[in-house]
Each structure stands twice: as structure tokens, then as C-alpha cells.
Amino acid sequence: MASGVRGLVIALVVLVLPLVLPGGYHRHLLVLAGLFVLMALGFDLVLGYLGELSLGHAAFFGVGAYTTALLTRNFATPFPLDLLLAGLVTGIAGFLIGVPSLRLKGPYFAIVTFGFAEILRLVALNWVSVTRGPMGLPDIPHPQMGGLVINTELSYYYLVLVLVGLAILVTRRLLDSTVGHAMVAIRENEELAASTGIPTFRVKLIAFCIGMVFAGVAGSVYARYVHFVDPTALSFYYTVTVVSMVIVGGQGSIGGTVLGAVLFTLLPEYLRVAENARLLIFGALLMAAVVFLPEGLHGLWRRSRQVAGRHAAA
Amino acid sequence: MTAVLLQQILNGVIIGVVYALIAIGLTLVFGILDVINFAHGEFYMIGAFLTYSLSVGLGLPYVLALAVSVVGAAGAGLLAERVAVRPLQGRHMFTIVLSTLGLSIFLQHGALLLWGPDPREIDLDWGSRPVMIGEVVVSRLRLVALAVGLVLILAVTCFIRLSRWGMAMRAVARNRDAAALMGVPVQRIRAMAFAGGTALAGVAGGLLGAMFTVEPTMGEWAVVKAFSVVIMGGMGNVPGAVLGGIILGVAESLGAGYLPGGSSYKDGIGYAILILVLLIRPQGLFGQRV
């Protein structure tokens, strides 16, 4: 019962928050936070549930963004279609990169995904006839469905909210399914999972592709939202941001991932007051968070509740 | 025709030997501490900036500046190990990766604050003077880099193979707990390996910084090359890293010279090699271990 009430409160806050916040800037941050939540949820499927660190996440975000940019600019593809196609193309990219990469584990998987991501970034940078290289692709139109135009921070926020809701739903359903149980079994002990007849490779591939589709969808909406993509959308910095979100938030937990994503969207923004020292402080905070929060924010929350419970019992 | 080819190969070998220095540092840290140090490139950058400040700023002779920078990079490494690696011992590999990523951001932006974003040059009068070997031309600076690189590679190899400390390092790499039981001071060995690794990156920074330019983001590029080399050579394998470095240097040099549109994709050659090796022979071309 208590969890139902909590869910209702969260839903209300999330719905009303952009309406009460002053100014477009905060709404803009909320849109970004929502997109990062989407990316982070996809990332956590691989890190938190498969137990593999993918360092190519930003590239899939970029694939989604470029797909939408190219479709809308060249074929005037209408809104939900380009989003679906962006998801599909990213899924295929996830498959093509996942098939070879997922045969590797641990540090090797991390490095090979990093390598693939950098190759994709170099392609975006150098395939000038299609991507216009560093100049990027401008004039990506706002989504339009019938009379409904999504062109304000507020409308984008609700669009992203719907997508995040869908992603959480998909994640929950996936984790409750046989595939989800198999994922956790693989994370805990891959040999054992394989010996019980779980097709480990196929399960890993499914989870990886779904995770990458989330990133691609986020990229597609991002391209619409800022009207523009360039190769910096694929930069490793975004991957690092997403890794921070999930590890500091608490891997393997939807709530922790969401919390981490919101925190790490706002943190670099609010650190702007520090001007040039912004990323210096960000780096230091990142190290401190990893050192002092062993199980992430999620673990901190759980432990504080245990302590509170013990006090109540005493 | 053959003169051009020889020239390309020689250039590649020289750059490759310097890549090998960076990669040996990374592979030592991986082999002995079991840590993928994503901030490794930043120590390369620190070495380059220290060499720049000491030689151009203070007017020290280049080789002396280089030597002092190595000590500086090692010191920075000791500090970094203390702050960002040691507190995480026994935690999952991913958390340590994130910590070194944080360290990398911190150091890169620290350098940006201290030295600014503009590329700097270490201009050496003697360095750009050419030396003819048959039909092939090399600058003196490159010869110095080759010599320093080869001497250091030899020194590191001997240290690991022959000295007591080297033996202790190999013991820790093989089995940390057993080494600790035999009385090896594991903490000190780990700190030493980390500082040694950053020192090697620092020398490489001082050498390549003088050939090209010095800027705060130069470490990103270096760490990627080092990854490809380390993967090629087998993680934790020092002779493998040397061969891998030379292979990468030569492949890049030939690729830039002979591939159509080669120079714009030159940096991609490293990634391509990286991925190919991981897919075909993930244990590296020459197997594993220190």
C-alpha cells in the first residue's frame, strides 16, 4: 500500500514539476534530464543486469540522432515514424556491434565497445558528403502530429516523460520475464547459467540491443529538440556522464538510475557558477562519489532506511 | 620509391617506440594492479606540459627538463594512486574505471586552467636539424626520442626480469595474496608500479610533445593508442606492448602515406587494429602476463 502511495506522489511531482518551476531554463534542464534518464536506463540494462561495462553508449545516442536528422532533412519523415526508425536503426547497430563484442567480457568488452564508438564518431566527422562533418546537420524540424506541434520545453518534457514511462515499463517487463531472470543469472555466474541451458549469448544480445534502442530513441528526440546534430553528440564525455549516472545512482536499480541521471544532468549545469573550474570540480566530485558511496545513492537510501528502521524498533 | 617506403617505416618505428613507452605504463598498471587506468593519457599530457614549462618557460636544457618531468609525472602518479585507486581496492572493476575517468576529467581541466587551451610548441634549434642515413632523413630530435625510448624499454625489462623489486612485481601480478603471504609489501609494489607507469607516460609526453604540440586534450588521444597497443600485445605483457607499439606506429605511418584519404582516418587505424585483434585473438597477439 505504502509503495502505491509513493508511486502516486512521484507521478504527481513529475507531472506538476515543470509547471511550478520558474523560467524556461529549468524546464530545459528537465528535458535534458529526461533524455539522460532514457539513456541511463538503457545503459543500466547492460551494466546493472548483464554486468558488462559498455563504453560506447554515446555512439548509439548519436546513431539515433543522426538517423532522425537524415530522415527528416532528406525525406521529411513525419514524427513518430522517424522516432521508430531511429530506434530500429540503433537496434540494428546494437546487433551488429553486439554480435562480435558480446563474445568478450570485462575489460575487453569495455575497450572494444569504446573502439567501435570512436570509429562511429570518426565516420560522423569524416563522411562529409552525408553528415557534413564537423558542420553538423541543422534545421531538424519540430515533431508535428496532426494539429499537435511539439515545440516548447514543456511539450518536449511531456513527450520525454511518456518515453521514459514506456522505457521503465519495458525494463520492468523484461526483468520479470525469463530473459530478465536469465540476465541476472548470467551476471552472477555465466558458466553456471550456460550449464542450466540458458542461451547466454542470445540473452546478452537481446538485452544489449534493447538498451541501445533506448539510447537511440533519446538521440532521436534530442536531435528534434535542439534542431541540430554534430559529431560531438557521439563524444566520449556523454558516455562518461551516463556511466557516472548509473554507477553513482546505483546500478541494477531503476530508481537509483533515474536519481543518478537527474543528479548528473543538474550537477554540471549548476556547476556553471564555477566557470572554468566547472569540470575540474566535476571530476573531483566523481572520484569522491565513487570512493565514498560504495553502493551508489540507491545503497545510501537503503542503508539509511535500515538504520531508521532499527531506531524505530529500539 | 623504396626510399619513401623506408622513410615511412623509420618514422613509424620512432613514433611506435614512443607509443610503446605509453603502453608499457598502461600494461604494467593493468597487470600488477588489475586497474584499467583511463587517466593514463593525462600523465602523458602532464609530462609534456612539465617539459614545456621547464624548457621553454625556465630555459632548462631539453634533456634535463625531460628528466625532471619524469619525476614530476611519477609524483603525480603516486598522489593519484593514493587518492583515486587505493581507496577502491577490492571493489568492482567498473567503480575503479569510473574513478580513473573522474581523475582524467580532473587532470585535463586542471591543465586547462593552468596552461590554457592553446597548443604550445617546444621549439628546439638542434632538434629540427636533419641527419641523413643513406637516402633517409631523420631529425635529431627523433633520433633522441628513439634512443631514449629504446634505453628505457631495455631498463624496464631488465628491472622487471632481474631486480628483486621486479620479481616482487611479477609475484603480485601472478597472485596478490600469495605474494603478500611471502612478505612482499603489496601496497608499496602497487604504488610503485602505478608511479612507474605514469612516469613512462610522462617521458613519452615530453618526447612527442616536442615533435608535435602540447595541449590539455592530448591525453585523450594517447590513451586510445595505448589501449590498442596493449590489446595487441596482450594485457599485462611488456614485450608485447613494445612490439604492438611499433606495429601501430608503422601501420599509421604507412596508412597515412598510402591509403586514399589516409591522413583523415589515420587515427582510426588504431581503433581498427584494436577491434580486429579483440575479435580474432582477444588474448593479444603474443599472449598474456607481465
Description of the molecule:
The complex is a heterodimer of chains A (314) and B (290). Helix content of chain A is 78%, strand content 1%. In chain A, a hairpin with a 2-residue loop joins strand 1 and strand 2. By secondary structure, chain A is an all-alpha fold. The longest helix of chain A is centred in the N-terminal third of the chain and has 28 residues. By secondary structure, chain B is mostly helical. Chain B has one domain: ABC transporter involved in vitamin B12 uptake, BtuC (Orthogonal Bundle). Chain B is 74% helix and 3% strand. Chain B has eleven helices and two strands. In chain B, a hairpin with a 2-residue loop joins strand 1 and strand 2. In chain B, helix 2 runs antiparallel to helix 3, helix 2 runs parallel beside helix 4 and helix 6 crosses helix 8. At the A-B interface, helix 5, helix 11 and helix 13 of A face helix 4, helix 9 and helix 11 of B.
Shape of chain B: globular
Strands of the widest sheet of chain B, in order across it, are 1-2
Largest sheet of chain B: 2 strands, antiparallel
CATH class descriptor of chain B: Mainly Alpha
Beta fraction of chain B: under 5%
Shape call of chain A:
globular
Number of helices of chain B: 11
* Total strands of chain B: 2
Which band does the percent of strand residues of chain A land in?
under 5%
Itemize the secondary structure elements and their pairings:
The complex is a heterodimer of chains A (314) and B (290).
Chain A: H1 2-20, H2 23-50, H3 57-75, H4 79-101, H5 106-126, H6 128-131, E1 144-145, E2 148-149, H7 153-176, H8 178-188, H9 190-195, H10 200-226, H11 236-249, H12 254-270, H13 278-292, H14 296-313
Antiparallel strand pairs in A: 1-2
Chain B: H1 2-33, H2 40-57, H3 62-85, H4 93-115, E1 130-133, E2 136-139, H5 140-162, H6 164-174, H7 176-181, H8 186-211, H9 218-233, H10 238-258, H11 266-280
Antiparallel strand pairs in B: 1-2
